[in-house]
Amino acid sequence: xxxxxxxxxxxxxxxxxxxxxxxxxxxxxxxxxxxxxxxxxxxxxxxxxxxxxxxxxxxxxxxxxxxxxxxxxxxxxxxxxxxxxxxxxxxxxxxxxxxxxxxxxxxxxxxxxxxxxxxxxxxxxxxxxxxxxxxxxxxxxxxxxxxxxxxxxxxxxxxxxxxxxxxxxxxxxxxxxxxxxxxxxxxxxxxxxxxxxxxx
Length: 200
Known about the structure:
It is a multi-pass membrane protein. By secondary structure, the chain is mostly helical. It has 8 helices and no strands.
């Protein structure tokens, strides 16, 4: 169901939505929250949970209950955001280092990490580090200031093109990293070698 949940939300929102900045689909936080309440059950329960959450959101939208968010204090939102960031980061550590263990909570995740840290795979760690470096560098590209006020029209046009290319590179960094990592994995597995741990 992963592919369906990835494109159906944006597809429906493209027709009925009003905000271009809304994060749709199976984000990391929603996936972790869903896992918390449906772990150990049939996958149908996860589908039911998502359906019921959608029904509640639809009813809230029809009833125009968005103003209720104003009653949530800033410290609550800040604490929730910080906790979500820590939880998501903790859940990604084992994938970054190529470790394999099962953990359900924040505490058990780090306990299992320290128990298995000696099993770290060099190839997975290097690929992870490379992807993080590329993401960080490409993110900084769109913040580079280019002066587009050149003396001649040709120089001004080149500066504008370069500025757009840098912006596009910064925006498309996730897709670029996914494509590069996929190519590396493809060529590696074509050579019948298995240096990377599959996380799916």
